[in-house]
Design brief:
By secondary structure, the chain is mostly helical. It has helices at residues 3-10, 12-32, 34-57, 59-68. The protein is built from 4 helices and no strands. The longest helix has 24 residues, at 34-57.
Length: 78
């Protein structure tokens, strides 16, 4: 197997994650309706912002997340 093929296979989980996440968020829009979906999106955004902010300010948390999600992280994101 070539390096390029291995690289593509390594990130298949990341691609599936993005696909499922996008379809999931779109589905919530139709299930919940516009107003409730936007409230959910705002709450989700705040949660992600909090987690990412903590990741940037707390080195131990950053290392823990990188260790847990290693297969989803590209080399240039380390």
């Amino acid at each position: 197997m070539t390096n390029r093929a291995r690289s593509g296979m390594r990130h298949i989980g990341r691609k599936i994650y993005h696909l499922v996440g996008g379809v999931g968020l779109l589905s919530l829009y139709f299930i919940l309706g516009r107003k409730q979906a936007l409230i959910f999106y705002a709450a989700l955004f705040m949660l992600i912002l909090l987690i990412d902010g903590a990741r940037l300010m707390i080195p131990a948390w950053n290392r823990a997340l990188f260790a847990r999600f290693r297969s989803f992280i590209r080399k240039n994101e380390e």
